Each structure stands twice: as C-alpha cells, then as structure tokens.
Amino acid sequence: MSSVKQEVRKLERKNEEQPFWEEERLRLPLILLGAAIYSVGVNCFLRPLHLYSGGIMGFSQLITTLLKNAGILSMKLDLAGILNYLLNLPGLILALKVMRKRFAVKTILSLSLTTLLLTLIPIPQAPVLEETIANILVAGILAGTGAGLILRAGASGGGMDLIGMIVVQKMGHFSVGSVNVSANVILYSICLIIFDVPTAIYSLINSVIQSTACDRVHTQNINVEVTVITKLKDTEPLEIAIMGSTGRGLTRLAGSGRYSNEDESVFIMVISKYEISKLLGVIREHDPAAFILLDENIRVEGHFIRKLT
C-alpha cells in the first residue's frame, strides 16, 4: 500500500472514531427543528382539510380514517402518529442492516420526536387559511422543509424518506423525493377510489410540493463537480487531507498558467453539496490562494458513492 493510501486510511479511521455526541451535537437540534416544522405543516395546515400526507404517514392517516368510519375508533381519538411509528418499524430494521448505525440511532430519535409532536399538536377544526390551495402550499413547503432538515442532519423522519434513502444508497440514480412521489401514486389511487377526485388531486399536489421542498433542502442529494487549481509545489499534504476528510477520491492533472506560465496542479472530484463546506475548509487551510470551481446538479456515471448520511 502506498504511503498516500496509508495516510488517507489513517485520517479516515480517526474521523470514524470520533464519539457520537461530539460529532452529532450540532445535528441533533436540526433534527428537533425539522420534526417540529414537519409536524406543524401536517397537523395545522393539511389535516384540517381532510387531505392526506405522502408516504407511510398518509397510509397511517388513511387507516385512522377507515377505522373511525367503521366505528372501531372514536372520532375524537387520533392514532395516525402512533400508526406511523409502528408502520416504520420494518424500515428501521432494514436501515440497521444496510445503513450506518449513527443514521439508525438518529432516525429512531427523529421518528420518536415526530410521533410525539404529531400526537401533541392539536389539529384545528377549520383550515387556518381561507383558500384551500394556500393551505396546501404552506403545508407542503413546511412538511418538505422539515423532512429535508432531518435528512440534512444525516437522519430520516421515517416513511418513504427512509425507504428512499435506502434505495438511493443501494441503486444510486434516484432522489429521495422521486421515490416518495412514486409510492404516493398508490396511496392517492386508493384515495381516489374510496373518497373523491378533489381529495386525491389536492393530496397529490401537496405531495409534489413537499417532495420538491425536501429535495431542495436535502443537499446530500445534490452532486457537485469541484475543480481546484493550486500553485503549491508539494500537493501531497493537501491531497491526503481532502481524501481523508471527505472519503472521496480525486484526479490530479498537471497544468500551466497561460498568462503567468507558472506550473499548477489541477484536482477534479465529485462530492455532494453537503460536503462542500468541509472541503473548502480543508483547501483553504492548506492553500488560501487556491482557485476553486463548483458546478452543481451534474450527472455521474460510473463508481460514485452516494453518501446520504
């Protein structure tokens, strides 16, 4: 094994050995904030319209409605949040097998917080806003933003977000939002059969808005091509620091300034948008004068690991 590989592995192991609370202390408040925003969006703006959220939460709402209509469940009792937790248990077990343990722990925390808040936050008897579409828009933006914040913290609020992350991790060419929308086609088809067209259509509109907002906030889902031009004579320490801190490979090219005629080194790599701040910090620490180009939303073919957690 080359000395560069040894140094990179050593730095990666050092990062992995950081205590859970030391590494995650700044992300846990983000999970709480995301769970609160999501719960407010669903309970305060969507459910007074008798519409259905996307994914597993939507199925939980649907089951609750059917139980109430059948007289099995009291009209005053709402079990959607608890049902959502129970239906997520198989996904949590799967996540423990294929995802990082830290992700599973944070997901259990976020799902528990979301369940608690969905149970405690009262559902208004009448819509908060006069216009139906306005309530749907606000509900979708809030719920999508909350889910996206949880994903950005390296966790999941459960539901199809969790399944989506597992699918993206294993298959690659998907986004969490697109997996969510695909699953919702089944849910809203059932709503169309059982209820009426407006319920299905409005619920679907909310789902699309929520998924779009989620993908915008979930920056791990956005690929970025990074080109770094440096005039450092010895670039090995910078290369080791970049690869060791991000867990990403890079390609080094030899270059020359056309105007200055000075020798330069050019690094090319692909990372997620979420990793940009860490990468920039490493580069600036070694070369404050480095020239850096960032190109978002690129398509990647070949071996590229989607690090969503």
Please tell me about this protein's structure.
The chain has helices at about 5-15, 20-25, 30-45, 55-70, 80-100, 100-120, 130-150, 160-170, 175-195, 195-215, 235-245, 275-285, and strands spanning about 225-230, 250-255, 265-270, 290-295. By secondary structure, it is of the alpha+beta class. It folds into 2 domains: about 15-215, no CATH class; about 220-295, Alpha-Beta Plaits. Strands 2-3-1-4 form a 4-stranded antiparallel sheet, with no helix packed on it. Strand 2 (about 250-255) and strand 3 form a beta hairpin. The protein is elongated, with a radius of gyration of 23 Å. The two termini are about 30 Å apart.
Content-based structural category: alpha+beta
For the largest beta-sheet, the strand count, sense and barrel status come to:
4 strands, antiparallel
State the separation between the terminal residues, measured CA to CA: 28 Å
- The count of DSSP E runs of length 2 or more, i.e. the number of strands, is 4
Shape descriptor: elongated
Helix content bin = 55-70%
Strand fraction equals: 5-15%
SSE run? HHHHHHHHHHEHEEHE
